[in-house]
Fold this protein.
Amino acid sequence: MKWRKQLGEYSKFGLSWLKNKGLVEASFWTDILTKMISPRLDLIQGEIQKRDLTIDVEQSYAMLLVSVYLSEIDERWNESTFRYAFSNLSSEIILRSLNYDRVVSYQKNNMLYVSVILDENDVSQAQLEERSRHLTQLMNQYLKCIATGYISEPKPITELAQVKADLERLDESNIMFRGKVHRQHTSFKNGEREKFDLDIQLYTSLFVEREKAQIVNRLKKDLEQLAHKNQLDAEMLHSIREDFLQVVYAILAKKNVQAHQLFRDSLAQQLFQKSENSIFDFMKWAHLITERTIETIKETLRSEGIVDKAKRYIHDNYDKDLNREDVAASVFLTPDYLAKVFKQESGLTMKEYLNQYRIEAAKRMLIESRMSIGQVAIETGYDTISYFSTVFKKLAGETPNAYRAKYSSLRS
């Protein structure tokens, strides 16, 4: 009976081992690819024995690395759920099973990667390429994202970590050929890269002349010419974006416009994050930047419009703790520049205009409501009754109490 009981316990352990074997093996391949296990054959064999795995270290292994930009994941997806679906689909299409023992998912910088490891005899390179193309199509169809695949040649197990690093570098240099499947030794460049500098003077002139269409068309032409020569990579696209921003910031600075205020909304930030993914994403971002910059320049040339906007902001927010920095931010200008334009246009400083508007509102409250003086002070944006009373008397010629009493007697 004791022997049978022990046998039953061992049977449970065996079932548990079979159930979790895939997780153990997946952990092993993760450690191989991240060099947590040193790429020495004897140490790798030791780990295989320690984890009780059946992995042949004498044969070679092929790797498929699939990448997706994190910024391209549909907002409806939870990131962990997307990662799970990504791994599932990769395993089902490439390995023809839903076992995770040869699938490693990880994040690096702004990319989400899935690495699939195959025995060299499991599938031919042609079959692997066909399955990989099918996977990228399904990723686009069902997960609504652009997935790019990279296939390695069969390599010894000791070289897999280096293969992974090589494929990641290949992915980093790939701007023009996203959404496709590439071999390990694909080159996205033809020879030495030509030197290219954005024509800062030309783009500056176009912004000054407010030529939106010409700016966008010229920028698109520059990128397409580089792409045609196979010279456009991630590094160059980044440089072009920085040069273009330099032009925009310089133009805005001359007009006393605060660029960080102009481009801080979620749409601008989202397009900025995606702008280095492809020419298409770059142009979507550049179009928004150009549109906003030129429209803001036009607004600054119409000082009356700017002052009206500032006044409207004051009218909408006079009951809050308001200062000139807040008002200036609402029209994307520096506080000093707006203060100068506001004074020229209205004859009042922004603080004087704010106080004047607040006291007019306070007068109406004193006449039309039964609120206490303290409540009226708070409702019109003043922290203390004493300061409210001082400003009120200065502008109305009498105290709030006297003003209320006078108009109460008139009504009666």
User: Anything to note?
Assistant: The mean pLDDT is 88. The CA atoms of residues 48 and 54 lie 7 Å apart.
